[in-house]
Write a structure and sequence with these properties.
The structure holds 2 protein chains of 2 kinds. By secondary structure, chain A is mostly helical. Helix content of chain A is 52%, strand content 0%. Classes of the chains: A mainly alpha, B alpha/beta. Chain A: Keywords: 4Fe-4S, Iron, Iron-sulfur, Metal-binding, Oxidoreductase.
């Protein structure tokens, strides 16, 4: 990533930290930057900013920088950081919150992860259950990776792991309704 | 003993052998698993990355269904499903949240259903003696790296065992006559959530775990999670390439090892549905008891 302008704070930085506290129960003012979260992070090697740095960014009011970093999409939600944090900041929850807020603000850096989540939830909303094959095929096509993992398909087919048709539950409407009701609670926004 | 059973989407697809082996092993142990009628996907891992309400509501419909059918203990093989259902269960203990979620799922939710991992059910609800009674082919000499992954033991509020040094699976393997190896990567993340979106990162994370299991002298790996297994088994070739060494470690669901020790036929357990050939190691090791 490029250089960070320390003066480039977004006006609503207090507001953003208040939102993290209220909606996601994570109080970033508790963090004293010990770095235990990042020392144990198994995905840190693939991040340009570690979770400690991202928390620092939000503390400093660099909200937009934190929301647009690719690193939040490399977090595997393993919760090692939250388990070890001596200040109960729940860094994994912060990363999750940043992903959700990035999506709301239209600032998702990793378009593939975004596409994956959309297709995943579409499948669940349509059938009540996840259709793995449908998800993988749609994801590979729409993300331009047509032949990704294609060599794994024949063995999986033989093993009976690839179900060509989606499995739907009887009361699909009930699950679709959950999606609708959540949206309604959010005032129509996703 | 009667439990609600929540197989989850993976056990109908990529984790098919986990479902097969869990079902036959539970039957042997007189554990009655009653599938929750018309269960839906728990939303892992996309719902909790999209909306916190949706993340609680999708699993909550299953909790409500379980309550309706009087199945208050829900046994869950998949580690991801377990974590999502548990998180939802804990969230709806708060009356305010329970009311909000009940409105969203349009079902009555009492907060009575308990999400339980099948590993924890086998460990806590059965005595070692009960498991030992069924062992006809002890796993003598089999060195097993018990890999727990993240979702069953982290974060602490949902953990079924110690977050850093769990032993539930190790104890079961010992009861089956096998030898769990000491190693440091028991709960290190395999990158399951990145398996499709960031294959490069997932392969590196998987490679580390496989490498250390090998260095610990294991003959195979045992897991309680379909996402871990997909990564460790399906992506093992890619991991070998990244490491530049041969690994060749079969990756079993712990239930497949239980079934093998119980004398259940390999194909009934789904041992033919692996990427790294999994049948011959167990054929060579298991000798009938008393020999």
């Amino acid at each position: 990533m490029g250089s960070i302008q320390l003066s480039n704070t977004v006006p609503d930085s207090d507001e953003f930290r208040a939102l993290l506290k209220k909606e996601y129960e994570s109080d970033l003012s508790l963090c004293y930057q010990c770095g235990k979260c990042s020392a144990g992070c198994p995905a840190a090697f693939a991040m340009e900013n570690t979770v400690r740095q991202i928390i620092r960014m939000v503390q400093l009011g660099l909200t937009k920088e934190a929301l647009t970093t690719y690193s939040i999409w490399v977090c595997a939600s393993c919760e090692t950081c939250s388990t070890r944090c001596p200040r109960h900041v729940e860094p994994a929850k912060v990363m999750e919150a940043l992903r959700i807020e990035a999506k709301k603000a239209g600032l998702v850096a990793d378009k593939r992860a975004d596409l994956f989540n959309d297709l995943f939830l579409q499948s669940v909303s349509n059938h009540g259950r996840l259709h793995e094959v449908g998800l993988i095929m749609r994801y590979n096509l729409l993300s331009g990776q047509w032949f990704k993992d294609a060599m794994l398909a024949p063995s999986m087919m033989m093993q009976g792991k690839l179900k060509v048709l989606p499995e739907s539950i009887k009361n699909k409407e009930a699950v679709a309704k959950i999606f609708k009701n959540v949206q309604k609670k959010r005032g129509g926004q996703k | 003993m009667k439990y609600g059973f929540y197989p989850g989407c993976s056990l109908h697809g990529t984790g098919i052998e986990y479902g097969m082996s869990t079902t036959v092993v539970a039957k042997k142990l007189d554990i009655n698993l009653v599938e929750i009628p018309d269960w839906n996907c728990c939303g892992a891992s996309s719902a909790h990355n999209t909306d916190p309400l949706l993340a609680k509501a999708l699993p909550a419909r299953n909790l409500a269904l379980a309550e309706q059918y009087g199945l208050n203990d829900i046994a869950i093989p998949c580690a991801a499903c377990y974590q999502r259902l548990k998180m939802s269960e804990l969230a709806v203990q708060k009356e305010e949240t329970r009311e909000e979620i009940s409105e969203i799922i349009e079902m009555n939710l009492k907060g009575k259903a308990r999400a339980r991992s099948i590993l924890e059910v086998f460990s806590n609800d059965l005595s070692e003696e009960r498991i030992r009674e069924e062992v006809v082919k002890p796993l003598t000499g089999l060195k097993v790296a018990c890999y727990y992954g993240c979702l069953l033991v982290k974060p602490p509020e949902v953990a079924i065992d110690s977050t850093e040094h769990p032993l539930m699976m190790d104890r079961i393997i010992t009861t089956l006559g096998g030898t769990p190896v000491e190693w440091d990567y028991k709960t290190e993340c395999c990158g399951g959530a990145l398996s499709l979106t960031r294959v490069d990162a997932a392969v590196m994370m998987t490679a580390k775990i496989l490498h250390y299991a090998k260095l610990a002298g294991a003959d195979c790996i045992a897991t309680p999670c379909p996402l871990c297994t997909s990564n460790l088994d399906m992506r093992q070739k890619a991991a070998e390439k990244a490491l530049g060494i041969s690994i060749n470690l079969p990756v079993y669901y712990f239930t497949e090892l239980m079934g093998t020790a119980f004398g259940i036929a390999p194909n009934e357990l789904g041992l033919d549905k692996h990427f790294v050939e999994a049948k011959s190691l167990l054929q060579n090791i298991s000798a009938p008891a008393g020999q």
